[in-house]
């Protein structure tokens, strides 16, 4: 597998994963501030 395609694969996989992690962090923060 060429290195460029591996990088593109990681990038393609990583962006939705990062969005998911940001979303989860935001939900956790909202729960914490609401719950006290």
Summarize the main sheet. Answer: none
H/E element sequence: H
Low-confidence parts, pLDDT < 50 over ≥5 residues? Answer: none
- Proportion of strand residues: under 5%
List keywords for this structure.
36 residues; mainly alpha; 0% strand; rod-shaped
Task: Note down, in words, how this protein is organized.
- The chain contains 1 helix and no strands.
- 92% of the residues lie in helices and 0% in strands.
- It has one domain.
- It has 36 residues and is mostly helical.
- The chain starts with a helix and ends with a helix.
Secondary structure layout plus pairing:
Layout (H helix, E strand, L loop, with lengths): L2 H33 L1
Brief summary:
By secondary structure, the protein is an all-alpha fold.
């Amino acid at each position: 597998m060429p290195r460029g395609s591996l990088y593109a694969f990681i990038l393609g996989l990583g962006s939705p994963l990062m969005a998911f992690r940001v979303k989860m962090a935001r939900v956790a923060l909202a729960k914490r501030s609401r719950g006290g």
